[in-house]
Amino acid sequence: MTSLDPAARTPAPAVSKVLIWAGWSLTGLATLFMTFDIAIKLVDLQIVRDTLVQLGYPPELGRTIGVVELICLALYLNPRTAVLGAVLFTGVMGGAIATHMRVGDPLFSHVLFGVYLGAALWGGLWLRDTRLRALFPVRPDWQAAAARTVRTEAHAAGLAEEFKWGHPMWSSAHGAVCLIKSFKAHLNLAFWRGAQMRELDPRLAPSGGFQMATIKLTDPVELSPGQVRGLIETGAALNAQLGDPMKAKA
User: Fold this and answer.
1) pLDDT tens across 161-181, in order?
2) CA–CA distance from 140 to each of 144, 146, 148, 150, 246 (Å)?
């Protein structure tokens, strides 16, 4: 029997050390600033009270804002809740931006400061989290168009979408059907039953286990919706006939 654990047969995507270091650098800078900002609010410094009055808020509100920011920071620094923390911080930054706009503060030094900080928070997380990069990929236009074609046809075929191993993947009720891997110069469209589908498309080249085979795309005209639909429907039909490809016998 093959391993029932897909991670044991499919290697995790390589993550650039440069991206990780850049991500943690941005995260560290944003965290340092937020730690300072939270601290001065929690100890209720006079400068915080004066600033709140200037912005039109009660002076005693500083500690409450500090507690809210502390909760957001704790969520952001926990890998399991980092995205939730970033989302909540976005709301906090939006409120700060609106406040500075309301009182007519300078644009670049005050109004947009929340944008700078939000960019650091999200940018740091995006650079070091493969799942977030898969959800919001930076691809050449033709790769993005090809990915949209696959997603559209997969949804039309009733497949469920999820993110595994840092890549978008689509499955039928009987198991995994296909996934996309984006590279700098090409896009891989992989099918778990691809080795059994080469008559449909001879470009399907064996790759990894589970009878998987991959089409390497380097040009936007290499993939039509009709081709994608045929491959997806065939892959789903083979799963219905043969079962989950990840649990197939060797």
Assistant:
1) 998 877 899 999 999 999 999
2) 6, 10, 13, 16, 31
State whether 125 and 28 are in the same domain.
Answer: yes
Q: Which domain holds residue 118?
A: 17-133
**Domain shared by 152 and 117, yes or no:** no
The dihedral formed by the CA atoms of 101, 106, 112 and 117, expressed in degrees to the nearest 10: -110
Are the C-beta atoms of residues 100 and 110 closer than 8 Å to each other?
yes
Same domain, 145 and 235: yes
The conformation of residue 106, written as its DSSP 8-state character, comes to -
Question: What's the number of domains the chain is made of?
Answer: 2
Q: Out of 133, 164, 183, pick the residue that ends a domain.
A: 133
17-42 vs 46-54: helix axis angle to the nearest 10?
90
Position 198 in a domain: yes
pTM over 0.70: no
Cβ 37 vs Cβ 50: under 8 Å: no
- Render pLDDT for 224-250 as a digit per residue (tens, 0 to 9): 899 999 999 999 999 999 999 988 654
